[in-house]
Amino acid sequence: MPRSLTRTAPLLFDAMPGLAGRVPWRPLAHTPTPVEPCDAIAGWLGRGDVWMKRDDLISPIYGGNKVRRYEFVLADAAERGATCLVTAGGIASTQVMATALLGASEGFSVLAVLFDQPVTRFAQQALLVSATAGAQLIYGGGYGRTTWRTLWTWQRASKPYLILPGAAGPLANLGYLDAMIELDGQVRAGLCPRPDVIVLPSGSSGTLVALALGASWLGWPTEIVGVRITSLLACNRLTINYLARATARFIQRFSPSVRLGMTRYRLLHEAIGSGYGHPTPEAIEALPQVKALLGVPGEVTYSAKTLVGLRALCRDPYYRGKNLLLWNTLSSVQPPADPSMASRLPPELQRLLNAPVIA
Ligand SMILES: Cc1ncc(COP(=O)(O)O)c(C=O)c1O
Question: What strands lie across the sheet with 324-327, from one edge to the other?
């Protein structure tokens, strides 16, 4: 596990001084997270010298790509006097789990509305993890019904703070801008080569946008490759460019002198299969590789499809000889999942605990 929770401010506040004291933040991430070679899967990838950034280890409570964001988002919720976090996501959503676990550890109550996605062992575990953390889970069903149930729940909750699926937004994106400055420090210290390409799963694309803004701010010619894991409606160049501009504008409100552009990025669309959370034969074949890399079972929504995308890059002559870095966004920390908590779930979700699984 990375160093303990000793930070008193993100690196970003030194790099962009206007933010300090004006942007909410609190320490949740144990940083720096390690950078390591992906030797365990070099054979499967068909090449060596691929590195990974282990944000899967970023917190003993729960790892993954929400922790850096929540340093800003949960601080903002507290500053606004909120006591209840309201969010939504699929039944296997790691964002819902992160909200349940980190929200509880920061003293918030959590309400989460869940939409249908294919039932996997990971999804069954996720329901118990969030219930064990004390979150109240509400069955949403389809996207439409989940949307109005979420707004309705938010309207009726006392002192609520709404966190949209993916928890991406200009404030949240500061977390991964800060992460690029952390990686720059590790490159300068000779811990890993400066990546020519950073590969990660892309859903709301907040992480991709922040890494691309960070690379550009550092003056790195690094390409950010997002493996699309959600619908084209949610993850496309239009939404990405809009989010990038909104994030840059947000920062310039506090640090007008900061110049932020986007470094090169691309989306890989081939790994998505029939949609968010739907397994593909390639993703199922990649699951043991996630286990080999992280030491814990992978899942088919984010991690396995990203490895499929990474392997495609490793086989692409254009990327031969380039330094590739995989940014791990899935937690390898396994929170408690108490089976007796099933009774706290609404019947529609309880039924899923015994449903046949597809992966
Ligand atoms: C484990 C994991 N990886 C990647 C992503 C995608 O990140 P983003 O929404 O920033 O594109 C998510 C989003 O929920 C996630 O939970």
Answer: 35-37, 50-53, 324-327, 197-202, 223-228, 265-268
Q: Which pLDDT value is given to residue 285?
A: 97
Please report which helix (H) or strand (E) contains residue 161, including its range.
strand 160-163
Ligand 1 atom at minimal distance to the Cα of residue 167: 9
Q: Map out the domains of the chain as residue ranges.
A: 11-64+168-328, 66-167+338-354
Does 1 have pLDDT greater than 50? no
Average per-residue pLDDT for the chain: 96
- CATH number for the region 66-167+338-354 comes to 3.40.50.1100
Average pLDDT over residues 292-319: 97
Which residues does 73 contact at the CB level (< 8 Å), separation at least 6?
163, 167, 169, 171, 172
Could you tell me if 332 and 296 are in contact, meaning their C-beta atoms sit under 8 angstroms apart? yes
pLDDT tens digit string along 208-228?
Answer: 999 999 999 999 999 999 999
Which residue has the least CA distance to atom 1 on ligand 1?
A: 330
How many alpha carbons lie under 13 Å from residue 206 in its C-beta half-sphere?
21
Task: Say what the pLDDT of residue 166 is.
Answer: 86
Contacts with 76 (C-beta within 8 Å, 6 or more apart), sequence order = 24, 161, 171
Residue 3 has a pLDDT of 53
Instruction: State the closest ligand 1 atom to the C-alpha of 203, by its place in the atom list counted from 1.
Output: 11
Q: Which atom of ligand 1 is nearest to the CA of 205?
A: 11
Which amino acids bring their CB within 6 angstroms of ligand 1? 64-65, 94-95, 166, 168, 201-208, 302, 329-330
pLDDT category of residue 334 using cuts at 50, 70 and 90: very high
* CA contacts within 13 A on the Cβ side of 297: 12
- How many A from CA of 202 to the centre of ligand 1? 6
* Ligand 1 center from residue 89 Cα (angstroms): 11
11-64+168-328 matches 66-167+338-354 in fold:
yes
Q: Which atom of ligand 1 is nearest to the CA of 89?
A: 14
Distance 204 CA to ligand 1 centre (A): 7
Fold of the CATH domain 11-64+168-328: Rossmann fold (3.40.50)
